């Protein structure tokens, strides 16, 4: 009896190996060859993206990783089907798991999608001065989930890419230069023309000031409560922005003092009513 059971077991095992063994070998071969081809396709995609993205490594890594992962998932599902496993229920289960993971990580996925938009549309690049989400700074790094900027105070701000992609981004350096506005307030009885000449003299004698796209100019921008508000407008290199702003503000104060032009402080006229 035991010999008969052993014989039946061997027969059944041979039947299983005959029926499924070849399918398993096919599935393994599909995975090995498929993964090799997926990696090669990833390399081809990387070379093509590299040509069109000016060596944007963050974009290259993102697209290549997405391509390889997508291809390998398809290969695994195909291999499972070749092994004789019903793939319909497996795909449904995979879809349900993906939906659950997506709902749990919707914030992170939004950042990934935002990162893809930022890397593709390129509203800014590393080293540019931008203002986004209420922060002004130089772009230090563009990651898949967040972008890092360094403020003038040397603070590093990490802004989620989802917020960046959905918000307003001001790029101050895409043109290679930036306009610097130096505000100056003078008394109402001060000579505006003389003040303009003093401020333009400061700008014209500063080698950092660019003549293109326009010459330095001084405008009256507001008639305030206690001052006539002027603005010296010049174009300079981004690297010179902060130093120029601070140094010119000081130089303007000293020059106006030397020329007897008053910079007023807020004043109020109070009428006392006697009872």
Q: Helices and strands in order, then pairings?
A:
Blueprint (H helix, E strand, L loop, with lengths): L1 H51 L4 H26 L4 H18 L1 H16 L7 E4 L2 E8 L3 E5 L5 E5 H6 L2 E3 L6 E9 L5 H13 L12 E7 L4 E9 L4 H18 L17
Antiparallel strand pairs: 1-2, 1-5, 2-3, 3-4, 6-8, 7-8
Pfam families: MS_channel_1st, MS_channel_2nd, MS_channel_3rd
Keywords: Cell membrane, Membrane, Transmembrane, Transmembrane helix
GO molecular function: mechanosensitive monoatomic ion channel activity
Give me some keywords for this one.
54% helix, elongated, alpha+beta, MscS_channel_TM-2, single chain, 275 residues, LSM_dom_sf, SH3 type barrels, cell membrane, Helix Hairpins, MscS_channel_C_sf, 3-stranded antiparallel sheet
Protein described:
The protein is α+β, with helices and mostly antiparallel strands. The protein is built from seven helices and eight strands. The chain folds into three domains: 103 residues, Orthogonal Bundle (Helix Hairpins), CATH 1.10.287; 48 residues, Roll (SH3 type barrels), CATH 2.30.30; 81 residues, Alpha-Beta Plaits (2-Layer Sandwich). It has a five-stranded antiparallel sheet. Strands 6-8-7 form a three-stranded antiparallel sheet, covered by helices on one side. Strand 1 and strand 2 form a beta hairpin.
């Amino acid at each position: 009896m035991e010999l008969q059971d052993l014989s039946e077991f061997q027969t059944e095992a041979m039947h299983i190996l005959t029926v499924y063994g070849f399918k398993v070998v096919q599935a393994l071969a599909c995975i090995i060859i498929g993964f090799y081809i997926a990696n090669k396709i990833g390399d081809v995609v990387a070379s093509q993206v590299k040509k069109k993205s000016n060596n944007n490594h963050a974009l290259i890594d993102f697209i290549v990783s997405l391509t390889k992962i997508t291809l390998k998932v398809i290969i695994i599902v195909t291999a499972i089907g070749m092994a004789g496993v019903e793939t319909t229920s497996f795909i449904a289960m995979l879809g349900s798991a993906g939906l659950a993971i997506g709902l749990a990580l919707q914030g992170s996925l939004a950042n990934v999608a935002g990162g893809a938009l930022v890397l593709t549309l390129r509203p800014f690049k590393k080293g540019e001065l931008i203002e986004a989400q209420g922060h002004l700074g130089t772009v230090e790094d563009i990651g898949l989930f967040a972008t890092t900027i360094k403020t003038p105070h040397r603070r590093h701000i990490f802004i989620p890419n989802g917020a960046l992609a959905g918000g307003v981004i001001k790029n101050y350096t895409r043109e290679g230069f930036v306009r610097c506005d130096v505000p100056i307030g003078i008394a109402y009885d001060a000579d505006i023309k003389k003040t303009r000449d003093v401020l333009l003299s400061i700008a014209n004698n500063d080698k950092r000031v660019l003549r293109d796209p326009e010459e330095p100019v001084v405008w009256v921008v507001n008639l305030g409560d206690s001052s006539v508000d002027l603005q010296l407008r010049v174009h300079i290199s981004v690297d010179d922005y902060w130093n120029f702003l601070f140094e010119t503000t000081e130089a303007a104060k000293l020059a106006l003092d030397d020329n007897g032009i008053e910079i007023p402080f807020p004043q109020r006229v109070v009428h006392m009513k006697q009872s």
